[in-house]
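Let us walk through a complete example step by step. Step one is to write down the protein sequence. Step two is to encode the small molecule, NAP, as a SMILES string so that its atoms and bonds are unambiguous. Step three, shown after the inputs, is the structure prediction itself.
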Amino acid sequence: MENERPTTVLLTGASSGIGLEIARLLTARGCEVWGASRDTARLPQLPHFHPVCMDLAADASIRESFAQAQRDAGGFDVLINNAGSAVFGPTATVPAELAREQFQLLLHGPLELIRLAVPAMRQRGHGVIINITSLAGSFAVPYMAAYSAAKAALSAYSRCLRLELAESPVRVVDVQPADINTPFHAATRRFAPDEDRARQEAVWEVQRREMAAAPPPSCVAETVWRVMNSPNPPPVVTVGSFYQAKIGPFMARVLPMRWLERLMRRFFGI
Ligand SMILES: NC(=O)c1ccc[n+]([C@@H]2O[C@H](COP(=O)([O-])OP(=O)(O)OC[C@H]3O[C@@H](n4cnc5c(N)ncnc54)[C@H](OP(=O)(O)O)[C@@H]3O)[C@@H](O)[C@H]2O)c1
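Step three: the predicted structure of the complex.
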């Protein structure tokens, strides 16, 4: 971006995994990053990094923290909606409250930040919104229905925003990671009733194994850097292993749904 002053960034989920790598890379490359966590003690101590306490489960916390960070920063050039975690369990059994919590964290929280950020970006004459969604939005993961659905919903919102803001100075990009090696799996809340135990176990184990062997979060940070500095970024960017991030989406475009379903069942061993 062609600013005289350093680029200001608001980043959620800066305490771990992908967000932590984004914070490291962006501060090292001259950005001022306001990075959020529910507990500022978990945030890194880096030059050009400004800790923000924000709980995406609570709209009041989002609004208060945003207002304070925006005053502090004098406005944001880039908003990165990255924070997230998953609930794992049978779709017909997981309590509705847990599914609602997923939608608050992965959809309504990010949307509240977008509502707060866009008017100021339009006034300033530039802005980039990067939503870190997931390939799970296209390849719904069994026993992670609320997670997959909320990510798909944020992808759809991103596409609408792009159309609506096409004549404005605000750019919107949907970054869809494949499996990435972070503490995400360890942080996943598992709701495991007795039914279907063997099938759940199989999927859980495949997820654990795939994430352990996946590329590091620095590849997502590099993608974010590229996208935020592109004068004309694409609507969707996938990132991860070649097989998951490139071959997978290609197969989803060309194969009939039933074939894809068969491949997914084979992949997860169910
Ligand atoms: N890892 C993967 O394979 C993968 C693949 C596709 C997409 N993604 C997406 O990438 C994003 C980052 O995931 P990650 O792999 O880096 O996971 P991670 O290492 O577990 O980090 C998750 C981050 O989200 C924050 N967070 C969780 N709940 C929050 C809440 N209620 N309010 C505010 N912040 C909250 C955490 O902060 P605190 O706990 O400190 O508050 C933490 O910084 C997520 O949106 C995830 O869905 C990950």
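Step four is interpretation. The chain has nine helices and nine strands.
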